[in-house]
Amino acid sequence: MQARQISARRIMRQIKPVEPGEIDREALAADLRKRIQGEVRFDNGSRALYSMDASNYRHIPIGVVIPRTIEDVLETLEAARRFGAPILARGGGTSLAGQCCNFGVVIDMSKYLNRIVEVDPQRKVARIQPGVVPDQLNREIEQYKLMYGPDPATHAYCTFGGMIGNNSCGVHSVIAGRTSDNIESLDVLTYDGERFEAGKTGEIELQRLIQNGGRRGQIYSSLKILRDKYADTMRQRFPKIPRRSSGYNFDELHALVHGHCHHKSIMKMDAEEKALKGLGLHYELPDSDCCGMAGAFGFEDKHYDISMKCGERVLLPKVREAAKNTLIIADGFSCREQIKSGTDRRALHLAQVIQMAMEESSFAANYSEKRYVRANSTHKASPLMAAAGISGAIAFIVLLKRCFWPGARRKRDSAQPQD
C-alpha cells in the first residue's frame, strides 16, 4: 500500500506546468493534429474567439481543441502533460465570472461530445456526454413526462459539463435541487491521466478502493483522511449555505430506505417517496423485499436461520455498506429490529426523520442519530469524491425532482444526546 502511494506521488511530481512563454505552441499543435480526429485551432482568430465567455474577462488561451471522441480528450491531455500545458474544459461559454477564460489549452466539449447515450425512463436516469444542453435532454425525455429540474437562465445554451463545474441551479432548483443533487455518477478524467467512475461510495467499497492503491486509491485515501480528521468540526461549523458553486459539499446527507414488505405489496412506496423528496434527501430504495423478521416469525428459534438468510440477501449488506452519515429508514418495527440485531446501525421511522428536519436548525450539518435512537455507531461525514481534472464523459444524471430541507420551524436548544 505504501509503495503504491509513493508511486502515485511521483506521478504528480512529474506534472510541472510551465510559464506561457516556455510552451512551444506550434510543436504542441502539430503533435495534436497527428493524434486526434477532432479540430486543432491554434490560429490567432480562434484564440481570440475563445478568450472570452459571457463575462467581462478576457484571457487568450494557448490554443483550442474540439474533440470528436472521448479518445481525443485522452490524447489531448496526454500531449498537454508532455508539453507542460494546462487545460480548461469548456462548454457553452455562458459563465458570468470568467470560468471559461484561462491561459491553457481550451477543450470545447460542446460541438461533438453532445450525445444522449441512453435514457432509462423507469429508473429516471440518463447517460449523456458533457456537451449536451438541458433543453436538448428535456426534449428527449418529455415523451416520458420527465424533465431535468435545474434550469439556469441559459438552459438553451449551457452544457451539462459546465453546469456540473458550476453546480448550476435556476429558478426551478427550489423544487428540483441543484445540479449536484441530480448527478448519479461521473466518468472522471484527471490531468495526470487517471480515468474512473465516481459516485456514491459506501464504507466497504471505500476500503476496497483504497486497498487497490494507485492514483485512484490515493485520491480516496486522502479524502478519507480529511473526513476522519475534520468531520466533527464540519458538523459544528460548516456554513449553512444552500448552494455553493465552488468548494466541496461536505454537508450532504443520504438515506437508505427499506419499506415494510406488506406495505410495499399493498400500497407501494409512493407516499414515502413524496415525503423524502419534500425533505430534500438523497435516498436509495434497495430491492430488499422482506427483511426476514416478518412480525414474530424471526424471533422463533426454528425460524432464525431462514430469517437471517432473508435479511442477508440484500438489506443487511446494504446497511453495513452505507456510509456512517447515511440515515437508515425503516417504518416496520420488525424491520428495525432485524437491522438492529444484524448490524451496528439503528433504523429510524420516517416520522422521526420528519421530526428531525422540523426541529434541527441545520439538519444536514448537525444531525445526530443518537438523539432519536441509541446507536452504537460513530457517525462521520462521508468523503466527497472530487478529483481535480475534467470529466471525459458524464455518466448518469438523476431526473427525479427534489427540494431542500425546510427552514427551521423552531429551534430546540436541548442538551446534547447522551450515550
Can you characterise this structure?
The chain is of the alpha/beta class and 419 residues long. It has 3 domains: 22-108, Uridine Diphospho-n-acetylenolpyruvylglucosamine Reductase, domain 2; 116-246 and 384-398, Uridine Diphospho-n-acetylenolpyruvylglucosamine Reductase, domain 3; 254-371, Rossmann fold (3-Layer(aba) Sandwich), CATH 3.40.50. The chain is built from 16 helices and 13 strands. Helix 1 (2-13) packs across helix 9 (214-237) and helix 8 (203-212) crosses helix 9. Mean pLDDT is 76; it is low at 1-13, 360-368 and 373-419.
Task: Write a short abstract of this structure.
By secondary structure, the chain is an alpha/beta fold. The protein has 3 domains: 22-108, Uridine Diphospho-n-acetylenolpyruvylglucosamine Reductase, domain 2 (2-Layer Sandwich); 116-246 and 384-398, 2-Layer Sandwich (Uridine Diphospho-n-acetylenolpyruvylglucosamine Reductase, domain 3); 254-371, Rossmann fold.
Topology:
Elements: H1 2-13, H2 25-35, E1 39-41, H3 44-49, E2 63-66, H4 70-83, E3 87-90, E4 105-108, E5 116-120, E6 125-128, H5 134-141, H6 160-166, H7 173-176, E7 185-190, E8 195-199, H8 203-212, H9 214-237, E9 254-258, H10 261-267, H11 270-279, E10 282-284, H12 304-313, H13 315-321, E11 326-330, H14 333-342, H15 350-359, H16 363-366, E12 389-394, E13 396-398
Helix pairs in contact: 1-9, 2-4, 8-9
Number of structural domains: 3
At the first level of CATH, what is the class of the largest domain? Alpha Beta
Query: Whole-number radius of gyration?
Result: 24 Å
For the sheet with most strands, the description reads: 4 strands, mixed
CATH architecture of the largest domain: 2-Layer Sandwich
What is the helical fraction, as a range of percent? Answer: 25-40%
